[in-house]
């Protein structure tokens, strides 16, 4: 799946990812970021997992035009 980081709380280590045409944002934990240097507005790819707290993003990576240069996570 793809989306955009729309919120991030550095002190608590979590944030939200929004998707085009989807009303509900997806929660993510900083430990699931596989890249560094992401910020609010970064485009990301991720998997989802259903937990007792709802749907969460896993294996988050940056979407970059040139795949050989991976953006360095939050």
From TrEMBL:
Return the Pfam families for the record: CSD
Report the protein name in the record: Cold shock protein, CspA family
GO molecular-function terms, A-Z: nucleic acid binding
Q: What is the organism of origin for this protein?
A: Pedobacter soli
Q: What is the lineage of its organism?
A: Bacteria, Pseudomonadati, Bacteroidota, Sphingobacteriia, Sphingobacteriales
> Coiled-coil stretches, from where to where?
none
Q: Which residues form the signal peptide?
A: none
Q: Where is the CSD domain?
A: 1-62
